[in-house]
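The records we work with from here on pair a chain with its fold. Here is one such record, which you should read through line by line:
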Amino acid sequence: MTPRIALVGVGSMGSLHARVTSQNERCELTRIVDPREEVGKGVADTYGAAWTPEIGDLSDVDAVVLASATETHHRLALEVLEQGKPLLVEKPVCADLAETEEVLALAGQRGLPVMCGLLERYNPAVMTALELITEPVYVSAVRHSPYAPRIRTGVAWDLLVHDVDLAIRCMGGAEPNGFSAGVGQFHPDSVPGAEDVVNTLMSFPSGAIASVSASRIGQRKIRTLSITELDRLIEVDLLTRNITIYHHVSQDAATPDGRGYRQQAIIEIPELVTAREPLATQLDRFLDLIAGRVDADAERASILPSHRAVAAVRAQSTSAR
């Protein structure tokens, strides 16, 4: 049976979900839910779906993609799960750790698949890099963006969570056991308490460390990930989806003219494991979850580490003020 999907929220991210879901032959975009009739009905008409202003009865669908504003996630996610429907919810699950835990606990109690839209997991360059990693000792990630007034959540939940999640995945899923953070709020239009810049240093049980920087007051978009191992550096540009691997070699060697050199850099550029759009790859995984081809318990468990880490960073920065 082809799963029938309801999409809740068709703002900036939701409109992308609408396009990708409508293009996927494995599912059917059945319903658009958005309180704004002009916007919601317009998207529904574009993709041949029905429109409703509220979730209401979900008996006409098999699963839900929740792409509404973060502050609505807790209430709407519970509403979906209480009707027994699998859920793909945009990141973060909720901008509060206790609320996230409540949502995931309800899904676990009911045996329902839940997936969080940590989209960088499905970036082809990230997927390739994760296959190449052996023993990372240091991870550095930078995610800077120009200011977006429509986003009311602070930068920790909006941006930092992506790279905290990537750092944890680079470390084989191990959770950080130590944090230090610098947090700043600077923009006059930001909601009080919604930070604009977060720089955090995380330590892991193995002794490895990760440095993650997130900012929403940058003047250009930056998305980089660097993974250092003892014998190589893996650099990932998340925007261009390129990977470069560097090996530093120190040695004495003679050249034909009799001169010597002491060091050289060997550069590798690996092929990507896929060229597929990350949002499409993410949807495929959600459909596999619905079909039972992916372990739903493991998927739910993979969501919490990044949310716990971001909550710890925010709590530490608040107590330090």
